[in-house]
Amino acid sequence: MDSEVVVSIKGLNKTFREKKVLQGIDLILHRAENVVVLGKSGSGKSTLIKCMVGLTEPDEGEICILGKDMADIDYEELNQLRIRMGFLFQSGALYDSMTVSENLAFPLRHHHKDLPREKVEEMIREVLENVGLPEAGDMMPSELSGGMSKRIGLARTLILKPEIMLYDEPTTGLDTATAIEINSLILDMQRKYKISSVIITHDIRCAKMTADRVVMIKEGSIVAEGSFEELEHNEDEWIKSFFE
User: Fold this and answer.
1) Is residue 117 part of a domain?
2) How far apart are CA 228 and CA 209, in angstroms?
3) How many domains does the chain have?
4) Are strands 164-168 and 85-88 parallel, antiparallel or unpaired?
5) Range of 30's domain?
6) Is residue 139 part of a domain?
């Protein structure tokens, strides 16, 4: 892990309809580091990453990503920043009417209109190899299993070569073997491309496999932070309940 800070969040607060969803969140992410944000459903985890990509505006606090203050950038700068950040939604969100290859080409054509066709095809081949599905290019999303859909969703995000990845419950709804495959992919991409990741989950196995550091959120506040092993041996009853 590099000591360079790629994300710095200070004093983040967000309220929805008088419910405090985020309360004074401070978070640092270093280059090539995986930070797992662990907490129960409704604890504010997904709101945190939505604030990071500009889908939700915080009420208070500071978010600095790759040297850019999110409060001070215009729409064009935000779009440029989003290209450098990958966001894997729970659903994978592929276009049903397009083949896998067409799904993968879509972000390239949107963001890099001048790329020659040969280069696009080369990048599609590379990213399908990376996610272990080299033969899937001509398949339709309806032909993919849940685990394959998740991997193609990840491939579509990785094809833009992001520096930061945000994973929202990457293993939810997957069987144990497929979840292990996805966790291994997250680690592979970290090692191969020095990607920095924030991984939102309530899956303790995902946290154990992927985390360099774990941050635990309870009712919108960070209540503990450390390595998986440190938190596993914490004496606090609420923290212990995750590891039992």
Assistant:
1) no
2) 9
3) 1
4) parallel
5) 1-84+162-172+197-244
6) no
Quote the mean pLDDT of the chain. 92
List, run by run, the mean pLDDT of 10-residue segments along the chain (244 residues). Answer: 88 93 96 94 88 92 95 91 86 84 91 89 94 94 90 90 93 89 92 94 93 95 95 92 86
Kindly state whether residue 134 falls inside one of the protein's structural domains: no
Tokens of 189: 């991409």
What does the buried/exposed string (b/e) look like for 116-125 if buried means 16 or more CB atoms within 10 Å of the residue's CB? eeeebeebbe
**Cα gap 152→219, rounded to integer Å:** 33
Rounded distance, CA 170 to CA 149, Å? Answer: 11
Q: Is residue 185 part of a domain?
A: no
Instruction: Tell me how crowded residue 67 is: count the other CB atoms within 10 A of its CB.
Output: 9
CB 86 within 8 Å of CB 163: no
Q: How large a percentage of the chain has pLDDT more than 70?
A: 98
Q: Name, in order, each residue with C-beta under 8 angstroms of 55's C-beta and a sequence gap of 6 or more.
A: none
Give the separation between CA 195 and CA 167, rounded to whole angstroms.
Answer: 12
CA triple 100-123-107, angle to 5 deg: 60
Q: Determine if residue 204 is left, alpha or beta; phi over 0 gives left, psi from -120 to 50 gives alpha, anything else beta.
A: alpha
Taking the C-alpha atoms of residue 243 and residue 229, their distance in angstroms, rounded to an integer, is 10
For residue 232, what is the enclosing H or E element?
Answer: helix 228-232
Q: What is the DSSP letter of 227?
A: -
- CATH number of the domain that 218 lies in? 3.40.50.300
